[in-house]
Amino acid sequence: MQYGYFDDDAREYVITRPDTPFPWINYLGCEDFFSLFSNTAGGYCFYRDARMLRLIRYRYNNVPVNAGGRYFYLRDKTAYGDVWTPSWLPMKSVLDRYECRHGMGYSVISSACNGLAFSQLSFVPLGDTCEIHKVTLTNETNAVKNVDMFSFVEFCLWNANDDMTNFQRNLSIGEVEIDGSCIYHITEYRERRNHYAVWAVNSPIDGFDTDRQVFLGLYDGFEAPVTVFNGKSNNSVAAGWSPIGSHHIKAQLAPGESKTYVFILGYCENPEDQKWIRFNQNDLLTTEPPTKYEDGWLKAINKKPAEDLLQKYNTPEAVDGALAALKDYWKNLLSRFTLDPLSLPRHGDKNMARMAGVWNQYQCMVTFNMSRSASYFESGIGRGMGFRDSNQDLLGFVHLVPERARARILDIAATQFPDGSAYHQYQPLTKRGNHDAGTGFNDDPLWLICGVAAYIKETGDYGILDEKVPFNNDEKLSDTLFIHLKRSFDYTVTHKGPHGLPLIGRADWNDCLNLNCFSKTPGESFQTTANYESGIAESVLIAAIFAFVGYDYAEICRRTNRIEETEYAEKEIAAMIGAIDQHGWDGKWFLRAYDAYGKKIGSRECNDGKIFIESNGFAVMAGIGLEDGRALKALDSVKDHLDTKYGIVLLQPAYSEYHPELGEISSYPPGYKENAGIFCHNNPWITIAETRLGRGTRAFETYAKICPAYREDDSDLRKMEPYVYSQMIAGKDAPCYGEAKNSWLTGTAAWAFVSISQYILGVRPVFDGLLIDPCIPSDMKGFTVTRHFRRADYHITVDNSAGVEKGVKSITADGKKLEGTVLPVYGDGKIHKIVVVMG
Ligand code: BGC
Ligand code: NOJ
Question: Whose CA is nearest to atom 5 of ligand 2?
Fold first, then answer.
């Protein structure tokens, strides 16, 4: 069943009933202030860091699910129904109409009940650190309506971890200040914080509440606030316990009349020496330090930044202007890669257009902003930016924001150690490596090469290689980015095991293949524990990644005239491929690893885990076995053993028991996560690998299976948002086979976009220009892509009336026949018409 539909022209997903199989969310914010916003107004927001500076409280894993948000309660005493929440939750109100539109950086919830229409437009404006909620009430009856509206947010005491754990302190420190229609949340502002939150509305109010217990009632939940039923605020002033912000507005609406209110939830900072204003009996104000004044002066928080912010969005027109600017921003971003739906006449391809052209890229930007920190599955208090994650995410957004990708690369590289290894994660606020997660994931260094190569191919900016970047964030240890890449490359070269394959360390891409962990203690972290440093366990996947990114490294060396280094790199790649040939092939597929005893993993000799997806995808991506048929065999084996209706599972047979020598992978019940779940991230590796074999129909099939839009009408089973990828879909061994989980923050977004845009549609940035190399189903008659690339726009039409899967017969560029398949770098700010004929 479907719970909504794509409005492709508006670039919105329209949810038509509120009781979706899981909260379906959107992300608001593209700079420093971010919000998670569900289709029932649930979620929370934060300034920069979801753990340290969270404005409102959200209760993860609560009963019922999705507790906390920015809620509005309506009360119409003359109407049947009396009190309701127009966003459906938290009261689960029976609404006459309901719709939620999630767009690019904004959401609109509209509903009607008791003859009163409600709409809530929510977004984070560019350039400011706040959520705007424009709320409109419309009387749809013929009689005058007297409505009470109550707003509601519950403040988080900033540090989200502390907020949910340190109650002995927190229940005594909550503080607020109220000034007219503005409620200020000022907990800890008296001491070390230089920031506060403001929850305000641009109209006079008829009352307020800031004490949760008073507003809700101690034994009442969000679904039954006593104050709303009473129809009157209490003007409560929170002191300790749990501060909230609630406005009471009495609205009288003539028949047909609408009234609009602008609510702002903002984050404001003051310089340390201007935190307070002081005033005396004559109302003289000053922000100067107290010592200069005699007793008798009163103090209040300096509200200037809040007042400026509120002033700016004081009217619905100002809000509409800010929304228009946001829409322009997205229109511009998404114009960098478009796929014309009209050029795709095949049934089902509209899903390809809406995903590749809009939602997949949108999700890539969300992963750029969030890494793996804050989603409905990531609490925002754990992981920071992942070294490998952020490098891979970059593949999906580098064409959208190349300048920001550049800055990101330099941040990531600064967390690398001088020996080439890297902190596995770093904190976005401080940009420092995370000591808890530490280092030792031996695939990490190689992803830096992967990210930098993608950046250079996109931009042609070799200058980045000369940037001086610290190691381990220590300026004294700075060297050029090129040297960082070299250390990455060398790290693998110098960390090999008995078969000449790379040592796996704590784990490789598969965080759950913990071959040196041997954990027997419940609760111990599989990722950071090493009870047994074997110095033996090796990864065939890292070997394949090395070959794949190694070619790019060698090419970068060649193009920057580092001839000796090029030769050295080529020699090492050849040696690695030799090791894979000799020790990484199992007869019908590539092995996955050798464990700490030197035993094979991912081999026909194993009882469980005979074949894995990752090494097969990456080896073929690197071109290994293309000549001698092993690549073909490997991908056929993947199809035979791992493919399912909903995507390709990570391994088979699933581990049925816990194996200390394998680690977390065998801790999951069969069919979940890394233990034979459909771990979507590496399905695109198979898609890309299939294009290397030229099997366009199969490549597309693997693409479409995990692509959420294709399963829109299967939402009862799939459960997650049909407009974004999920990290995992339960595999065939799981009771809930086909159910997706962990939507939004996953490397799947970037790799899916790479697979569709660069390998299926085949518009691929390479060092020299834009390579045209489509590999599509034979019954796909063609398509049109526009691509912004190095300061020019390429309007590319591909004609496949020949009905082939791969092969370019001819290309004309601006009417002239082009030799080869690489479009030149025009760099002239103009539009160029490219016609490609397959055959
Ligand atoms: C998950 C992995 C994840 C790892 C590190 C494991 O529990 O299964 O997907 O990468 O934790 O956070
Ligand atoms: C999720 C992690 O974010 C990613 O880094 C890892 O590669 C996958 N899980 C697989 O374990």
Answer: 389
